[in-house]
Design brief:
The complex is a heterodimer of chains A (185) and B (497). Chain A is of the alpha+beta class and 185 residues long. Helices cover 30% and strands 12% of the residues of chain A. Chain A has a five-stranded mixed β-sheet with strand order 2-1-5-3-4. The radius of gyration of chain A is 18 Å and the shape is elongated. By secondary structure, chain B is α/β, with parallel strands linked by helices. Chain B is built from 20 helices and 18 strands. Chain B has helices at 2-15, 18-27, 33-36, 52-64, 81-85, 97-105, 124-130, 159-166, 191-201, 204-207, 214-221, 243-250, 267-270, 276-290, 295-302, 403-406, 412-432, 444-453, 461-478, 488-496, and strands at residues 44-48, 69-73, 110-113, 133-136, 142-143, 156-158, 183-187, 227-231, 255-257, 306-311, 314-321, 328-339, 346-357, 360-363, 367-368, 387-388, 391-392, 398-400. Chain B has a six-stranded parallel β-sheet. In chain B, strand 16 (387-388) and strand 17 (391-392) form a beta hairpin. The longest helix of chain B is centred in the C-terminal third of the chain and has 21 residues, at 412-432. Chain B is globular and about 70 Å long. The chains are: A alpha+beta (185), B alpha/beta (497). Chain A: One of its GO terms (biological process) is P450-containing electron transport chain. Chain A: Pfam families: Fer2. Chain A: This is 2Fe-2S ferredoxin-type domain-containing protein.
Chain lengths: 185, 497
């Protein structure tokens, strides 16, 4: 009976803290990560969110121990593969900025869903794990060059442990010579 | 030996990150870059126009070439062009690009010279003498005319002027549009038309927290405009706006949509093979026009005092004046039918006409570039500078980027890519020798002395920062992000303090 009460309490605590348990290796690591996050980011993370807010809140992610980090591979416009480690919870735009990856013109609107310059292309399996696309993200994605079925905006993808080893390709940003069909400024 | 160092420095650029890059650029590569690399080559590039095109070209040039120096000339004392004067006040996130531009402008190899009118204070020829290359990115300051009788009546404005008025463009300060009529007609169905409609119908509570110009805010608070019609020549499948702006109109507080159901006949069938962006946009239009709203939405619409709607298949033929011929009283629209389908569909007159009474007509049919110097080739038919990938035809050392290069359509990301292309062409020419950078050129020193002779005092970037902090302080007092200075005299006065 005591065990049942414990299990019920654990279930309530999980729901309250919105734990997706499989993201983390052990409960201890999860608690440590939460404490770290609370220390480094005072604002709640709610999608869509702005990179400048997070920068202001001081979340850098680089102080986390390696075991918490997620490996992400980027393929830049020259076809080179760049591998970085990033913290769960950071968006791909955060990763590009924190790791000083040098993609021309990436993230012009600083993650406020007002442009399509953080457009990234994923493999089919990774794309399925990325979660639902909001209408607002889809609206801006529609304006992106080289849009594919597995395209997303980097500022809206939050890293989780299940995305370990994911590959994100930075598409060509140059349109063909014809005039683009998107609306005027 | 020198080429080895250059190769190494380019490799470093590609593999190092932005932080290292900025540090590297600011201090010189390796910390002592300038000391041991005897820079016998110092290419100087001049950019005319400080909007997104100018700044993105400068950014790319500075990043890709270690010794290039870039000077940006701007006619107004304030930089940033359409990002400041064209982006709607309720779209502040689009203006975040200003942070990147500020970073570029503050770079040691980039200088900003405001209050310099190229074509009047200094000619393009004189700039070409002082710099190795000149990049024209002064955009489109004119607008396409409808070419119908009555176009010059009071009450008819171009969208460019209207947008400039509410965004504080000094030349549009005296516009004072009459907003006492009930119906406004906007010709054109692009994003600018939707911006104008949204600003006309937005509740004052929303607008007063933006950086809209104060006189415009006051005029809009007293506006009696209750109905806005957005008129286009063709049908729902050819509408030029994008879905984000359309969604904002649909969700605009205090308004309800009203459209002609007959205009949407056959549209849903035609959507089968259309690419996703156009399909989603048309789906939203269909849903707004045809579907019965849910209870909450129905309630909201019933309480809405203002109405907006798209009017399709109509072209303006005449602006009708009131009996005293002193102001606009209506507009005569010819009815069209469509020939062909998709983006290539053409509007063909049917011979029928329709009169709509309105007191305000805003034509949003496109901006237009103007020639600023007879020495620069200009294609008046397309209103662009003739070029191939940014290299101006029959003019060595002249390049163009932005709307002047491709015509006045596209969002900031489009301009960014097109400016990067021009910068790449310039760099290729420098490397191949097509652009001769071996001879030293005087650069800004020569131009500064010319300007001094002519009594023109340029505004530097730190002067702009004084204007910026004054505007921000004034805005804080009113709960706005900034309170823009509305005249060149005020701007210059703030810059000189």
């Amino acid at each position: 009976m005591f065990a049942e009460i414990l299990v019920k309490l654990w279930g309530c605590w999980r729901k309250r803290h919105n734990v997706i348990y499989k993201q983390f290796f052990t409960l201890k690591e999860y608690v440590q990560l939460r404490r770290y996050r609370q220390r480094s980011a005072s604002s709640q993370v709610n999608l869509p969110f702005s990179v400048s807010d997070r920068r202001a809140a001081g979340s850098g992610g680089s102080a986390l121990p390696c075991v918490f980090k997620v490996t992400v591979h980027f393929i830049n416009r020259d076809g080179e593969k760049i591998t970085v480690k990033a913290s769960p919870g950071d968006s791909l735009l955060d990763v590009v900025i924190n790791e000083d990856l040098n993609f021309d013109g990436f993230g012009a609107c600083e993650g406020t869903l007002a442009c399509s310059t953080c457009h990234l292309i994923f493999d089919e399996e990774v794309y399925k794990k990325l979660g639902p696309v909001t209408d607002e993200e889809m609206d801006m994605l529609d304006l992106a060059y080289g849009l594919t079925e597995t395209s997303r905006l980097g500022c809206q993808i939050c890293l989780t442990k299940s995305l370990e080893g994911m590959v994100a390709r930075v598409p060509e940003s140059v349109a063909d010579i014809r005039q683009t069909k998107d609306g005027s400024a | 030996m020198r080429s080895c160092r250059r190769l190494l420095s380019e490799l470093k650029l590609w593999t190092s990150g932005r932080r290292k890059w900025t540090r590297g650029l600011n201090e010189g590569l390796g910390g002592s870059g300038k000391a041991f690399l005897s820079t016998s080559r110092c290419p100087k590039v001049c950019i005319i126009g400080s909007g997104p095109a100018g700044f993105y070209t400068a950014q790319h040039l500075i990043k890709a070439c270690q010794d290039v120096e870039v000077d940006i000339y701007e006619r107004l004392p304030v930089p940033f062009g359409l990002v400041r004067f064209g982006v709607a006040p309720d779209h502040p996130e689009v203006k975040n690009v200003i942070n990147t531009f500020t970073q570029t402008a503050k770079h040691s190899r980039c200088s900003f010279y405001g209050n310099v009118n190229v074509g009047k204070d200094v000619t393009v020829g004189e700039l070409q003498g002082a710099y190795h290359a000149v990049v024209l990115s002064y955009g489109a300051e004119g607008n396409r005319r409808m070419g119908v009788p009555g176009e010059d009546l009071p009450g008819v404005y171009s969208a460019k002027d209207f947008v400039g008025w509410y965004n504080g463009l000094p030349s549009c300060r005296e516009l004072k549009p009459d907003l006492s009529c009930e119906t406004a007609v906007i010709l054109g169905q692009g994003n600018v038309a939707l911006d104008v409609a949204r600003i006309l119908l937005s509740p004052s509570d929303i607008l007063k927290k933006t950086d809209i110009a104060q006189p415009a805010l006051e005029a809009l608070a007293e506006s009696r405009v209750r109905k806005v019609l957005i008129v286009g020549r063709r049908g729902p499948m050819q509408v030029a706006c994008t879905i984000k702006e359309l969604r904002e109109m649909v969700n605009l507080p205090g308004t309800r949509p009203e459209m002609v159901t007959a205009d949407f006949e056959g549209v849903s069938e035609a959507l089968k093979d259309v690419p996703r962006p156009r399909k989603r946009l048309t789906d939203l239009l269909l849903k707004t026009a045809l579907d019965a709203p849910g209870d909450k939405e129905l309630e909201r619409r019933r309480n809405a005092a203002k109405v907006w709607g798209f009017l399709f298949y109509r072209s303006p033929t005449e602006i009708l004046a009131d009996p005293g011929c002193s102001r606009t009283a209506g507009i005569r629209l010819a009815v069209n039918r469509l020939e062909g389908s998709g983006d290539a569909a053409r509007a063909v007159l049917t011979g029928e006409v329709e009169d709509v009474s309105c007191g305000l007509v805003i034509s949003s049919i496109g901006y237009k570039s103007l020639p600023i110097d007879p020495a620069v080739p200009f294609d008046s038919r397309r209103a662009v500078v003739p070029n191939s990938v940014g290299r101006v035809h029959q003019a060595a050392g002249l390049y163009c980027s932005g709307w002047l290069k491709t015509g006045p359509t596209g969002v900031i990301a489009t301009t960014m890519n097109n400016s990067f292309d021009t910068a790449r062409s310039l760099l290729e020419d420098m490397d191949s020798g097509a652009l001769d950078v071996s001879a030293a050129k005087p650069g800004s020193q020569a131009v500064s002395s010319l300007l001094e002779e002519r009594g023109v005092k340029p505004v530097t970037f730190s002067d702009w920062e004084k204007i910026d902090s004054l505007e921000t302080r004034r805005g804080e007092a009113r709960g706005k992000p900034r309170e823009k200075l509305l005249s060149v005299e005020e701007m210059l006065k703030a810059a000189r303090t």
